[in-house]
Backbone:
């Protein structure tokens, strides 16, 4: 069984981010500007030894891969930002991995198939790079996702093909794995695209493409799904309960108990079938991106993480799953990372290694 940690490539400068958010913007900017919003709130989160790396530097990626492998991570599930032929952003890190065969890490793509929006919020008085937020007064589309038809689908596939051919790219039964977040309202288009990609993949020497769709109450699912933790609701009941908590909550920042969130994850994981890839999480705090509109999981410790992730691996093992996902390797702007920081050092990595070794 392999553990793949979700991997964010938003840590190097690109012209589009300079244009959208200001010269030199990366997710580190959000992290450095974070403020504590309630008593005991630990912000900003800082990497150990001020390691504010830039992922256009291959040595930074070599360091990440070496550290990940040392502590039991088999690969990275890299977020993929394809909008249309001619607009494909944050491509440098996966390209550096593909081109440098000495980087000993497996990987596959998770397509974050949504347009990028800039929302001015009446609640924060500023802009949110994550898109729509409650109380927004104006929204500007920065990078529009256009699915197109076969011409556009082929261009996208041709971009992916050199990655698919990489021996380190994850494959199941000679099918490159490709995950996507959103099927809501675009399921029919995505199904046609996948069928076309399946044909192109077979022409390229594979046995097809293994598509995973995010399991969620409002998504129309493909045959194979993945759970995205910690906050993807799986049922309409879960979604309604979350909304109620937001409405009646006295604080703007939404707080969730670490133990309760993990117990829900384990409960859901026991119910789903073998065709659903399970997922756990390290910690969560997206206030660097969303401010008072953010979500914070409170009560996390490396010891708790080890206990719960070990239980998740046990469930996955009992189902015969080959892969388990973990959010995340380096989502610093959402307080969800395994990389060493000034608060816990390497303790979450050590906890992960112990959990994996127990299984």
Residues:
């Amino acid at each position: 069984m392999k553990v793949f940690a979700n991997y964010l490539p938003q840590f190097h400068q690109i012209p589009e981010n300079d244009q959208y958010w200001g010269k030199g913007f990366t997710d580190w900017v959000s992290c450095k500007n974070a403020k504590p919003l309630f008593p005991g709130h630990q912000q900003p989160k800082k990497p150990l030894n001020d390691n504010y790396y830039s992922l256009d530097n291959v040595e930074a990626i070599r360091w990440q891969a070496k550290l990940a492998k040392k502590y039991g991570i088999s690969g990275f599930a890299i977020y993929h930002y394809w909008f249309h032929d001619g607009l494909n952003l944050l491509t440098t890190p996966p390209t550096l991995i593909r081109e440098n065969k000495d980087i000993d890490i497996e990987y596959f793509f998770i397509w974050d198939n949504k347009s990028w929006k800039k929302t001015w919020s009446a609640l924060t008085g500023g802009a949110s790079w994550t898109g729509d937020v409650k109380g927004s007064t104006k929204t500007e589309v920065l990078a529009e996702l256009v699915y197109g038809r076969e011409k556009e689908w082929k261009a996208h596939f041709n971009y992916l093909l050199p990655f698919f051919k990489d021996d380190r790219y994850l494959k199941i039964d000679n099918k490159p794995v490709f995950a996507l977040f959103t099927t809501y309202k675009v399921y029919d288009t995505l199904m046609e695209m996948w069928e076309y990609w399946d044909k192109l993949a077979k022409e390229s020497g594979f046995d097809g493409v293994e598509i995973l769709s995010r399991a969620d109450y409002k998504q129309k699912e493909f045959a194979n799904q993945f759970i995205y933790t910690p906050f993807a609701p799986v049922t309409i009941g879960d979604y309604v309960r979350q909304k109620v908590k937001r409405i009646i909550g006295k604080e703007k920042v939404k707080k969730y108990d670490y133990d309760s969130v993990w117990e829900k994850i384990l409960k859901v994981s026991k119910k789903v079938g073998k065709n659903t890839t399970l997922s756990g999480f390290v910690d969560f705090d997206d206030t660097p991106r969303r401010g008072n509109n953010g979500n914070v999981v409170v009560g996390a410790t490396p010891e708790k993480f080890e206990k719960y992730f070990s239980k998740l691996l046990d469930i996955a093992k009992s189902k015969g799953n080959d892969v388990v996902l973990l959010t995340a390797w380096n989502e610093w702007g959402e307080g969800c990372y395994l990389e060493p920081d000034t608060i816990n050092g390497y303790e979450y990595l050590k906890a992960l290694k112990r959990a994996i070794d127990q299984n």
User: Anything to note?
Assistant: Residues 49 and 342 are 8 Å apart (CA to CA). DSSP finds eleven helices and 18 strands in the chain. The longest helix spans residues 302-319.
